[in-house]
Every structure is written in C-alpha cells, then in structure tokens.
C-alpha cells in the first residue's frame, strides 16, 4: 500500500514538475506574442476592375471579395447570407462566370473582370433577368435575389436553362428561404428567351 502511495506521489509530483517546466518554457506572454504575430494584418494596395471601372483599394490580404465589395467599395447588392459558400447570396460574376464572393480572396480577384448586381443593368435599363424577376414576382424578402439573378444570368449563358429540371439543377446552389422557386424558374425562362435574342 505504501509502495502504491509512493508511486502515486512520485507520479503526481513528477507530472506537476513537468507541467511547471512546460509552463516556464511557454509562458502566456510568449503565447500572446506568437498569436499576435500570426494575426497581424498585412495590408496591400490593389486595383479591382468592378462593373467596368478600375477601383483602387487597400485591403487586408485575408479579406474576402464579398467584404471588400460591401465594406470598401460600398456595393452592398451582394449579400452575406452564410459566409460559408452554402447559400449563393453573395454570387457575382468573375470574367463572366458565377463566383461565390464569400469564398474568394480579394487579392485573387485582381486582374479579373468583376460584375455585381449593380453593374448588370444595360443601356440604362434593367437586364432582362432583373425585369423577369419583377414580372414573375421572383422574390419576396429579396435577400437572396441579387445572388439568384447573377446565378440565373450565368445559368442561361452556360446553356443550362433549357428545361425546368435543368434550371432547378443548375440553380440549386442558390437558396431562397422564402421559397420563391417556382417564380424564379418562370423568370429565368422568360429572360432566357430575351437573352437569346441578343
Ligand atoms: S454568403 Fe456566400 S454562399 Fe452564402
Ligand atoms: S426572396 Fe427571401 S430569401 Fe429569397
């Protein structure tokens, strides 16, 4: 029993000493400085081509394109829904293709042509997809709408809007909590006809 007690006492005291030495080697002060080094922002000056204009901005290298558009360039049409690439509310076009701006670093967007919902209108009028969403009541609260429209335009350009099934499949990354889906499909079919005339 004594042996057992001593063994336990030796074990506990050895463990405590080891923990103490670890603590001394890696103090909270050092931990703080390591953490500060890791999170220190690195700012860069870049120029983004957005909606046909060159926009110089200074950004943290970790900033997403969505945050840069909304907070730096004040283009708030692109919405932050999930911020994790799951809802499609932040969809924009990069070089004409749909892109989730919440999953794109701003620095990676340099040298590409970015279009947001604010730049979609043509010839001082609404884009046919914007008009079709109004005509078919394709939105209720409107939170998902800019992402839906950007995705819908790309969907037609990709040739993925030939049937209702096709449209549902290729628009499935854009969620609508108001469930305006049937009206969105109707809007896309109308706009497809208009877009194909151009
Ligand atoms: S905010 Fe980008 S996918 Fe939801
Ligand atoms: S219209 Fe409300 S989330 Fe789609």
Automatic annotation (TrEMBL):
The UniProt keyword set, sorted, is: 2Fe-2S, Iron, Iron-sulfur, Metal-binding, Oxidoreductase
Keyword Iron-sulfur in annotation = yes
Q: Which InterPro entries match?
A: 2Fe-2S-bd, 2Fe-2S-bd_dom_sf, 2Fe-2S_ferredoxin-like_sf, 2Fe-2S_ferredoxin-type, 2Fe2S_fd_BS, Aldehyde_Oxdr_Iron-Sulfur, Beta-grasp_dom_sf, TAT_signal
Q: Which GO terms describe its molecular function?
A: 2 iron, 2 sulfur cluster binding; metal ion binding; oxidoreductase activity, acting on the aldehyde or oxo group of donors
Protein name, as recorded: Periplasmic aromatic aldehyde oxidoreductase, iron-sulfur subunit YagT
Extract the SUPFAM superfamilies matched here: 2Fe-2S ferredoxin-like, CO dehydrogenase ISP C-domain like
Residues of the 2Fe-2S ferredoxin-type domain: 44-120
């Amino acid at each position: 029993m004594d042996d057992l007690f001593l063994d336990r006492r030796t074990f506990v005291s050895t463990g405590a000493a080891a923990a103490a030495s670890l603590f001394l080697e890696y103090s909270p002060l050092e931990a703080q400085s390591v953490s500060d080094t890791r999170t220190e922002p690195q700012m860069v000056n870049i120029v983004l081509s957005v909606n046909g204009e060159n926009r110089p901005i200074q950004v943290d290298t970790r900033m997403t394109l969505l945050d840069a558009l909304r907070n730096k360039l004040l283009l708030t049409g692109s919405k932050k829904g999930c911020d994790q690439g799951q809802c499609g509310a932040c969809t924009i076009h990069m070089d004409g293709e749909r892109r989730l701006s919440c999953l794109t670093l701003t620095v990676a967007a340099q040298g590409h042509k970015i279009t947001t919902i604010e730049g979609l209108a043509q010839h001082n009028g609404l884009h046919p997809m914007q008009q079709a969403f109004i005509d078919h009541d394709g939105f209720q609260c409107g939170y998902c709408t800019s992402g839906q429209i950007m995705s819908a335009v790309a969907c037609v350009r990709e040739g993925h809007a030939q049937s209702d099934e096709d449209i549902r499949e290729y628009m499935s990354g854009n969620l609508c909590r108001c469930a305006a889906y049937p009206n969105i499909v109707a809007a896309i079919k109308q706009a497809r006809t208009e877009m194909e005339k151009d």
